Amino acid sequence: MNQPDQFTFDGLFSRNVVEQRMMGMGLGRKPKYDFAISYPDPSSLPLQGLMTALQQALAEEGPDLALYLSAQGYGPLREFIAAKLARDRNLHVTSDEIMLTGGAGQAIHVTLESLVDTGDVVLTDDYTYSGALHQMRRFQAEIRGVPTDSEGVLPDALESAIRQLPREGKRAKLFYTVPTFQNPQGWTMSLERRKVLVGLAQKYGMPILEDDCYADLRYDGQDVPSLYTLDGAGHVIYVSSFSKTIAPGMRAGYMTAAPALLKRAMAAKSGGPVPLFVTLAIHRFVTDGLASHIEEINDIQRQRRDAMLESLEEHFTGGATWLRPEGGLSVWVKFPEGTDATAVREKIFEATNAGYSTGPNFAPDRSSGKNFIRLSFGFNTPAEIREGMKLLADAFRREGVLR
Amino acid sequence: MNQPDQFTFDGLFSRNVVEQRMMGMGLGRKPKYDFAISYPDPSSLPLQGLMTALQQALAEEGPDLALYLSAQGYGPLREFIAAKLARDRNLHVTSDEIMLTGGAGQAIHVTLESLVDTGDVVLTDDYTYSGALHQMRRFQAEIRGVPTDSEGVLPDALESAIRQLPREGKRAKLFYTVPTFQNPQGWTMSLERRKVLVGLAQKYGMPILEDDCYADLRYDGQDVPSLYTLDGAGHVIYVSSFSKTIAPGMRAGYMTAAPALLKRAMAAKSGGPVPLFVTLAIHRFVTDGLASHIEEINDIQRQRRDAMLESLEEHFTGGATWLRPEGGLSVWVKFPEGTDATAVREKIFEATNAGYSTGPNFAPDRSSGKNFIRLSFGFNTPAEIREGMKLLADAFRREGVLR
Questions:
Q1: Which of A100, A388, B195, B310 is within CB 3.0–4.6 Å of A354 for a Cys-Cys bond?
Q2: CB A293 within 8 A of CB A58
Q3: Burial degree of A160 (CB within 10 A; 0-12, 13-18, 19+)
Q4: Do B248 and A67 touch (CB under 8 A)?
Q5: B265-315, pLDDT tens digit by residue?
Q6: Given an 8 Å threshold on Cβ–Cβ distance, is B171 in contact with A12?
Q7: How far does A35 lie from chain B, in Å, by closest CA?
Q8: How far is B100 from chain A (nearest CA, A)?
Q9: CA distance to partner chain A, nearest, from residue B337 (Å)
Q10: Quick one: closest CA in B to A233, which residue?
């Protein structure tokens, strides 16, 4: 029997759809020293706490798994988040103004889908979260990075970027930033800088997408108010998640924004709510257990950050520079201009079994920043970090990246 | 202190975004006799089985919750699904050709997003799943319903609808159907009709979106091959889910399609994979427990269907007609032309505490079918069904809908 010709869908795809492409992170296998991905520590996940929480919740509300619930997500968890944001971030919204999402990533997606048409301009920090860039590209935004220093985005540069747009018949649809423990750069935007940024948003009618997903992971220093709180006038879309404080495998993020935006983001979210099976477990766990769990993991991660910083001090001094992050999961390392830490990544992985993320992965143009690497310290123990960093330093030296 | 003016996002929203709107199902509170929604039975959910499964899986793979995994979803569950489809539906794909989704709903969403631009024509059964219609409207498709009878879509009518399109400079982007235990109509498309439908898809280069999410809920009669299997040439996008066989609250669906489509559907899926916390529990549960669980719930649901059919026989004979479904979760009831069961829904709910779905909810034009109702029987016990159906019949008689 002849097989019929395979159908190709020629001429049928929608204009805006893209093919799935790798994000350039893959090394084929997982490195032993995995400094490439911002994982939380696998050995301190609250697995038992989640099991106990789920057991209790299913005994109380298990039959509700039979229901089809609103895409906004489980109400009691939204109430917990509203109370947490008020307490921890001085950010005051009702649970009705919160939507649960598949990680912060889906909150970023539905925000971009609500605002961005093909060719629209989105502004970002000069190097920023690769998953957000990936979504911006999917919606065919024109992404323009704005220079930053150790206190965050440079206000003059941002204002020029905004003012340039009307000359091109355009308008900034959004400024995306991770103001606290910026990914990948590690800085926290200063209060002064935040005030200026919010002032620009108000002056130019520009929404800000504030990705605050690392804010709970503070190892020292003082909290800085969120952009959402400083604004108070609906310009800021605030997203965060439990991926870093509980586990990425829960896919539980959340967002809050002005009703006009939130209603559209809800329509763009598909597949129903974050599964009740997940939100029941999280809700019962966080109600009693989140604060002490965060304290526990922050102790662990502080030691890992310190091991990473001490290793940098020991092996990279003179050949590279970096900022000491007060929280988060990674350190951003700069080699001298002209060196290329990107081209040697796979070779170094083969030689050392250590992985790192490369600068272009975080660059709006996909190519800048070849002399930068991001080193994440959440996954390995302090001893492994010291071991892996020594191997990495030796390998970078052999390749002429580190001198 | 003056509050700053609230930002309105005027002129900033993307062209295709819509506001979340209610789907017209809400009655304010949940009816005692809830024939409106196709729930599975809340009291026979496999809660203990899922807990045991999760406990075992977390002991074995819990630390993997720390990882960021591919949006395609947990490999071992995709392998289980590939084996299940081969065994139950004679449908042969590899696990690489399967993507897990947030219920069948997200599979429908990403398929539509991959194919539909504003104004594109999508063909459907004359009355069909309201969630799919909702997604089609979201992508601003022009939805054209095609007449059906008790064996499914009428081939001549479908071919005319397809042939009409080039005269308008258009082409069918998709034919969406629920061929097995059609929602809401309850028919199962006959083998002969399926062959003709697949032939039309091949002749005209038209993709078919086959929503097979009720196929496991067969109470009597013989399985009919899936459209995907009959085609074998990549025209059919096949979606299904565990919502009806495990629980909607897991949000675990899946799809398979030709690689060209699947790659785009993967890019359109956001928020990462279905949570590992969910897929670990499902995988361990289904491996040993799915077949016997389906047997158990089908015994329960067969009795409920029979209670519903007997109640119709007893109270509605002469005043309405209906089809006996061999599976699924609902019965589609037709009152005489000119009667209106839609306008009286809330009044009847107040009088009886019984809910039903109205015809226009399933109509592409949102208004046809006022003399149809869908009665779902998964939620209530047989005794409650008999009780509620008696109340409903009396109320419909008082309103002149039933004579």
A1: A388
A2: no
A3: exposed
A4: yes
A5: 999 998 899 999 999 999 999 998 999 999 999 999 999 999 999 999 999
A6: yes
A7: 13
A8: 11
A9: 32
A10: B6
* CB proximity list for B60: less than 8 A, separation 6 or greater: none
Q: Do A102 and B271 touch (CB under 8 A)?
A: yes
Q: What is the pLDDT of residue B4?
A: 62
Q: What is the pLDDT of residue B29?
A: 82
Residue contact B58–A66, C-beta within 8 A: no
- CB distance A67 to B248 below 8 Å: yes
For chain A, the helix, strand and coil percentages under 3-state DSSP, each to the nearest 5: 45, 15, 40
Q: Give the distance from residue B402's alpha carbon to the nearest chain A alpha carbon, in angstroms.
A: 30
CA–CA distance, A343 with A379 (Å, rounded to integer): 24
Residues found in chain B: 403
Chain B residues with beta carbon closer than 8 angstroms to that of A171: 11-12
CB contact under 8 A, B271 and A109: yes
Contacts of A275 in chain B (CB under 8 A): 102, 249-252, 274-275, 278
Residue B15: which pLDDT band, with cuts at 50, 70 and 90? Answer: confident
Q: Give yes or no for residue B355 having a pLDDT over 50.
A: yes
Looking at beta carbons, which residues of chain B come within 8 Å of A67? 37, 39, 42, 248-249
pLDDT at A3: 58
Reported as a pLDDT band with limits 50, 70 and 90, residue A14 is: confident
In order of start, what are the domains of chain B with their CATH numbers?
33-46+292-398 (3.90.1150.10), 62-289 (3.40.640.10)
Report the chain A residue with the minimal C-alpha distance to residue B20.
A267
Taking CA–CA distances from A261, the nearest residue in chain B reads B9
Q: How confident is the model at residue B21 (pLDDT cuts 50, 70, 90)?
A: low
For chain A, give the percent of residues with pLDDT over 90: 89
- Name every chain B residue with its beta carbon within 8 A of the beta carbon of A71: 20
Tens of pLDDT, residues A280-310: 999 999 998 999 999 999 999 999 999 999 9
C-alpha separations of A153 from A128, A180, A181, A187, B246 in Å: 11, 12, 13, 10, 49
CA B137-B142-B144 angle, to 5 degrees, is: 110
**Within 10 Å of residue B63's Cβ, how many Cβ atoms?**
17
CB contact under 8 A, A66 and B9: no
Q: Are strands A152-153 and B33-34 parallel, antiparallel or unpaired?
A: unpaired
pLDDT over threshold 90, residue B28: no
Instruction: Check CB contact under 8 Å for A260 and B69.
Output: no
Closest CA to A253 of A274, A270, A277, A235: A274
Q: Where does the pLDDT of residue B8 fall: very low under 50, low under 70, confident under 90, or very high at 90 and above? A: confident
* pLDDT (tens digit per residue) in A222-264: 999 999 999 999 999 999 999 999 999 999 999 999 999 999 9
Chain B residue numbers with beta carbons less than 8 Å from the beta carbon of A256 are none
Average pLDDT, chain A: 95
Q: Which one, of A183, A254, A192, A186, lies nearest residue A227 by Cα?
A: A192
Closest residue to A13, CB basis, from B67, B114, B138? B114
φ, ψ dihedrals at B256, nearest 5°: -140, 150
Scanning every residue of chain B, which has its alpha carbon at the shortest distance from the alpha carbon of A71?
A: B20
The pLDDT score that the predictor gives to residue B10 is 87
Q: Are A301 and A378 in contact (CB under 8 A)?
A: yes
**A175: Cβ–Cβ under 8 A, 6 or more apart, which residues?**
A122, A123, A124, A146, A153, A158, A197, A201, A206, A207, A208, A209
Confidence band, pLDDT 50/70/90 cuts, at residue B26: low
Q: Phi then psi for A274, rounded to 5 degrees?
A: -50, 135
Q: State whether residue B199 is helix, strand or coil.
A: helix
